[in-house]
Amino acid sequence: MLVNLKTILAKAEKGKYAVPAFNVNNMEIVQSAIQAAVKLKSPVILQTSEGAIEYAGMQYLKALVYVASEENVPVVFHLDHGKNMKTIKMAVDNGYSSVMIDASLFPYGRNIQKTKQVVAWARSKKISVEAELGAIEGVEDLVSVTEKQVFFTNPNQAKDFVKRTGCDALAISIGTAHGAFKFKGKPRLDINRLKEIDKIVGVPLVLHGASEVPQQYIDLANKYGAKLKGAKGVSDAWLRSAIKGGIRKVNTDTDLRLAFTAAERKTLFNKKSSFDPRKLLGPARDEMQKICEHRIKVCGSAGKA
C-alpha cells in the first residue's frame, strides 16, 4: 500500500525503530527491496535520486514502485536529494508520496526559503517533505560535497529550521558520508549531537550516507577485477546507536551497488557462455535482497508493517 513518509515515521518514532530507505534505479533493485519487506513484514521506503530519474525516467520508476506498492506492506515512493526545483515539482505532480528538498549547501535563509516553497507545493496533496540541514561529505549519484563544504548540524538552528519551514522530517549531519569511502580514519558518529537535536526539533530524523559497505562484497568484487581499496562504512553497532539516539529513516544505496557489482562480476566470470540477462541479473538481485533483509533487521522495522 502506498503511504506518505510522515505516516510511517510517526509509527517508527512511537516504536523507537527506523525504516530503511533503498535507492532504486531499475526493476531488480525494486524487486529485491519489496521482496525483503514482504518477507520480513516491514514498511519500506523506495526512493529515486535525480540520477536515477535521468537514467530510467520518472514514469518508468513510478510504474515499478506502484506495482511494488500493491503488496501488503506500507511503501513510500520518495524523491531522494531533490536539488532541482523543477524535478521536485514534477515529483509532487506525478505521484510521489514524499519528496526531499536538499538545499543544504545554500545559505541558511535560502535553504529555509526553498524548503518552504516545496512544503507549500506538497501540503495540498498530502505529500511529505524531508529537508536537510548540515552537509555530509562524499560523492554518490549526482550528490557531491567536498570536505571544505562539510558542516555538522547545529541543534538550535535545526529547531528553528523545522519551525520556520514546516518540514516533516529532517536529514542531519553527524559524521556520515556518501559513497563507499566514508571515513579516512576510524568511523565515528556524533551521537551526543544527535540526541540533542532529537530532543528539540519535534520531527523524525534521517541519516544519509548510512551504508555499511560490507567487507565480503568488497572482497568478492575485488576478487573478480574491481579496485575498491579503502572502502569503509557505518557499522551495525554505530547504526543501532544512531537509531537509539533518534534516527527514524536510514538511507541505503552504496551497499546495494556493491552487492550488485560483486554478484554480477562473479556471474560474468563463471558464466562466460551465458547471454541471458535473466541468468546474469538474477544472482545480483538475490544478493541485494540479502542486503535489504539485513538492513531491515538492523533498523528494527521487521514485523512493523
How many structural domains does the protein architecture include? 1
**CATH homology superfamily name:** Aldolase class I
CATH top level label: Alpha Beta
Mean pLDDT: 92
Sheet with most strands: 8 strands, parallel, barrel
Question: CATH architecture, please?
Answer: Alpha-Beta Barrel
Rg on CA atoms, Å = 18 Å
CATH topology descriptor: TIM Barrel
Give the topology:
Layout: E1 2-3, H1 5-15, E2 19-23, H2 27-40, E3 44-48, H3 50-56, H4 58-68, E4 75-82, H5 85-93, E5 98-101, H6 108-123, E6 128-133, E7 137-140, E8 143-145, H7 155-165, E9 169-172, E10 177-178, H8 191-201, E11 205-207, H9 215-223, H10 236-245, E12 247-252, H11 254-270, H12 277-299
Parallel strand pairs: 1-4, 2-3, 2-12, 3-4, 4-5, 5-6, 6-9, 7-10, 9-11, 11-12
Antiparallel strand pairs: 7-8
Helix pairs in contact: 2-4, 2-12, 3-4, 5-6, 7-8, 9-11, 11-12
List keywords for this structure.
TIM Barrel; alpha/beta; globular; 12 helices; 3-stranded mixed beta sheet; 305 residues; 8-stranded parallel beta barrel
